[in-house]
Design goal:
Elements lengths: L19 H19 L3 H17 L4 H8 L2 E6 L2 E6 H27 L5 H25 L17 H10 L6 H25 L6 H19 L9 H14 L4 H10 L7 H18 L2 H4 L2 H17 L3 H25 L11 H31 L11 H10 L4 H11 L3 H29 L10 H11 L6
Antiparallel strand pairs: 1-2
Helix pairs in contact: 2-6, 2-14, 4-7, 4-10, 4-14, 5-7, 5-15, 6-7, 6-18, 8-9, 9-10, 11-13, 14-17, 15-16, 15-18, 16-18, 17-18
Length: 478
């Protein structure tokens, strides 16, 4: 009879190499940061900090050095071939492609399994998103500048989900779960609309050769999927080819990130049931191993690899990638983007009529146009019977939703960089975005506190709040 191998006692709670006092000190130092990063509002707070740092440095004695940092050329060269771009370009066209890739993943997931999977559920957030894009654009075209300045009409159409969710989080139990779901669905459709605006209106002359290269990369991704390749890294080379081809074609390369994200499979191979069965089988195999084989690292590693594959395939590739990339997008890419694009030199800034009208058009579009468009569009589809309000949601909730949707920030700054080459107009646009987003956030918080009643039992203890944060860990989006 083969003797099964079972641990005589629970494994130690500390690594064998760790020195206990040092480990306790490290955990004590990391705990506040860990709690902060678990908060759904943490990404928005980090963005505010990054924008404040960029503004401070751009208006400090170190402003010239700060500007030179973002103009530092980086790239590769081999012989006569050289591809070098400023650091700012790598942030806006490179890192932001990853941001848009995650947006594409989330759009794909919502269409397959989320709020956009059924037209009845999607009708209300779709109307809210469309109204929240059309109204700000119209307001900008009415009060904004003419000529080249009219290109900024796309700046106020976008919503920054990190800040919007952050405001709702600060409102606590005044916000029902249905309102948060409605905001997330609105943001997904809003992102899709902003991507279409970028692809159609803010791309240069189209090169067929570049499109052919991009198509080759996308087709290669499809071939890998048909061959059943599951390793994410195998898709990196064709993804880079698609990104480079899109850039060469004159389309903004971040569009490639969205397309690749929306091509990612959203069905799990094993699922929860298959995962549990596979792990149970693997654990049973380990338990049945003779002592000599159980002590063989190679033999154990083979079983653990199967367990790792089962864990990976319990979720769809899209879900796995969202979970993997979300922290990097929320806490690295978006703050770096804010650092690179929020620095506006205010010293000696003179806003002539054209930049001032651009600033005013963007500010009015975000603060006034967004809530107005959301409310009018929602009212229209509800009156026509094309949609219905979720349980527990009323006109007051829609007013708060529209106001927090006026927080543009990340996407608005991104479109401003595409819309304006004139430094005066770009500076005015950035000031408009930053100021209007801050005002929309404050107004959204004030409206929420005045219009929405706190749910019974809203006051919770610190322990309960920490437990709630732990339960929500991993929730939300970038």
């Amino acid at each position: 009879m083969v003797e099964s191998v079972r641990p005589a006692e629970p494994p130690p709670s500390e690594p064998p190499e760790a020195w206990a006092p040092a480990l306790r000190l490290a955990r004590l130092a990391i705990r506040p940061l860990d709690r902060f990063l678990r908060l759904q509002a943490a990404s928005g707070l980090l963005l505010i900090g990054a924008a404040a740092v960029a503004l401070a440095l751009a208006n400090s004695p170190w402003a010239p050095a700060w500007a030179r940092v973002w103009q530092l050329k980086l790239g590769v060269s081999a012989g006569r071939f050289a591809f070098e771009r400023p650091l700012e370009w790598w942030v806006n066209d490179g890192l932001m492609a990853v941001f848009f890739f995650v947006v594409g993943l989330e759009i794909r997931r919502e269409i397959a399994h989320g709020e956009l999977s059924d037209w009845r559920r999607a009708a209300l957030p779709a109307a809210a998103a469309l109204g929240g894009m059309v109204a700000p654009a119209l307001i900008f075209l009415i009060v904004g500048p003419g000529g080249a300045g009219r290109a900024g009409w796309g700046v106020p159409v976008a919503t920054d989900i990190a800040f919007a969710v952050g405001v709702l989080t600060l409102l606590g139990k005044r916000v029902p779960a249905a309102l948060r779901v409605l905001l997330l669905a609105l943001a997904v459709i809003d992102d899709l609309g902003a991507i279409l605006v970028i692809a159609v209106f803010y791309s240069g002359g189209i090169s067929l050769a570049g499109l052919a290269v991009a198509a080759a990369g996308l087709i290669s991704i499809l071939i890998l999927q048909w061959l059943g390749v599951r390793r994410a890294f195998a898709y990196l080379p064709p993804a880079v080819v698609a990104w480079a081809g899109t850039y060469a074609a004159g389309v903004h390369p971040t569009v490639a990130g969205v397309v690749i994200g929306m091509m990612t499979p959203v069905r799990a191979w094993l699922g929860t049931g298959g995962f549990m069965a596979s792990v149970e089988e693997s654990v049973g195999e380990l338990q049945r191993l003779p002592p000599r084989e159980a002590a063989d690292p190679h033999r154990v590693a083979l079983v653990l690899q199967r367990i790792h594959r089962s864990r990976r395939e319990a979720l769809s590739p899209a879900e796995n990638l969202i979970e993997s990339f979300h922290p990097w997008v929320a806490f690295v890419i978006m703050p770096v983007f804010a650092l690179a694009n929020s620095g506006v030199t205010l010293q000696g800034l003179q806003l002539s009529e054209e930049p001032l009208r651009a600033l005013g058009g963007i500010a009015l579009g975000l603060v006034l146009g967004k809530p107005l468009g959301v409310l009018l569009a929602c009212g229209l589809v509800l009156a026509l019977g094309l949609a219905r309000l979720p349980a527990g949601i009323g006109a007051r909730h829609l007013a708060v939703l529209g106001q927090v949707a006026g927080i543009g920030f990340t996407m608005s700054l991104f479109i401003a960089n595409l819309a304006y080459r004139d430094e005066r107009l770009l500076a005015a646009a950035k000031i408009g975005v930053l100021g209007a987003s801050a005002l929309a956030g404050v107004l959204g918080l004030a409206l929420g506190r005045s219009l929405l009643a706190a749910a019974p039992g809203a006051a919770v203890s610190a322990d309960e709040a920490e437990a709630q944060v732990a339960r929500e860990e991993g929730g939300g989006r970038s």
